[in-house]
Amino acid sequence: MVEISKHLFDEKCRDVSCQKLFHPWNQSCFMASLFGYKQSFLGSAKFYLVIHLLQNLMRGKKILTRKELMQIGEYYVRSTIFGAFVSGTCITLGCLFRFLMGNRMTYYTYLLVPNTLNGIFILLEPPSRRGLVTNLFCSLVLEYWLRNLESSGYLSLTVAKQTFIFMVGSAVLFYLMRLEGEKEKRTPLFWLFTPEKVKHNANNSNNVCPHDGQCWKYILKGSSTYFGVGLAISLARAILPKIRSPIKAFSSLRGAHLKLALFFGSYIGIYRSVICYLCRKRGYDSALYALPAGYLAGLSLLFKPNLGFATASLTGAFKLYATILYEKKIIPENLPLPILLYCFCQGMLFHARFLHPHTCPSYMFRLINTVSNGSSEYLYSNLLKVVKSTI
Ligand SMILES: [Zn+2]
Ligand SMILES: [Zn+2]
């Protein structure tokens, strides 16, 4: 993958027309924009259909009331419009900024500034989903920065370091989640599992643990369920793309396909074991037990090293911490920190996808490609042609 530095971009792209870089399918900026919006609406509708279906399936509720169905529909439409506007206005703003810069394309106004500004469309998403998307994008930017530091030789992201980040992130995250357990309204967060609330009335029962029933059953149940989920995801990813030739698909299965299952299973298994051990040993439950439990559970990343999981644990913990800061009024209520963060991250990640693809998290390639209905790949190949040409 070609890294396009500021120097290279300014040299090769400065005087290139917006048609070449933003809308090769039509000479007119206006007409091309219309086609761009149509593609973005189609792509966004497809992308969010899968995302919303999966999220609703994971909620695990089988019977939905009419009101709930209406709300699911409304959220889906809002997400689709959000995705379509971000992808569509990318072309409109790109052409506009080129015009404003005196018909010149610059490194910053090519994608960074337009996609920072159109991040404001996140307001179309309902507040609960807004937080989840912001959290995901912050985690991706953190991953992107770490990869940049690695590629510049300042840091080497060994498996041990990734695991250490995940251990620290998990410890703080689970501790803050257990602290939040008391509240009526919890901060929306998408994480591998939600720890149990702290048990306070241990004196009234024989069980000091935060769960009912025997410890070994509780630990085994969590481990086996998550092992099953991990295995199902790995098998689906291995088999579904080759579903037309089942024999080939099944013969491609290897021991490596157990890695995700082992990671998920041991993550919850270690966490629950440590919590139960500490509750039994000390005779009462405390939110603080989540610190050693989460820290040791983080070791399970050794089964499937992944920088994305490591950074996600940190940003998840930061999100819960930010909620505390808002409640204590340390962050002023009228400061829309999540929205500003989202805009910043979106600009950064779109910029990274096109100009620094070698360090950009792979999720961004799939996201931008699907939401733009394939247009992004076309535009990227055009950019490469421009950069490689000797004008
Ligand atoms: Zn144009
Ligand atoms: Zn127990």
Explain what you see.
With 391 residues, this protein is mainly α. The chain folds into two domains: 1-157 and 336-391, no CATH class; 158-328, no CATH class. The chain contains 16 helices and no strands. The chain has helices at 6-13, 18-22, 29-59, 66-100, 107-110, 112-117, 127-151, 159-180, 215-239, 246-251, 259-282, 290-297, 307-327, 337-355, 362-371, 375-388. The chain is globular. It binds zinc ion (2 copies). It is a multi-pass membrane protein. One of its GO terms (cellular component) is endomembrane system.
Order of helices and strands: HHHHHHHHHHHHHHHH
| Count of separate structural domains | 2
Radius of gyration: 24 Å
Distance between the termini: 21 Å
Structural class: mainly alpha
Estimate the global geometry from the Cα principal axes.
Answer: globular
In this entry the ligands are: zinc ion
Largest pleated sheet: none
What labels would you give this structure?
2 domains; 391 residues; mainly alpha; binds zinc ion; 16 helices
Fold blueprint:
Layout: H1 6-13, H2 18-22, H3 29-59, H4 66-100, H5 107-110, H6 112-117, H7 127-151, H8 159-180, H9 215-239, H10 246-251, H11 259-282, H12 290-297, H13 307-327, H14 337-355, H15 362-371, H16 375-388
Bound molecules: zinc ion (2 copies).
One zinc ion binds next to helix 2.
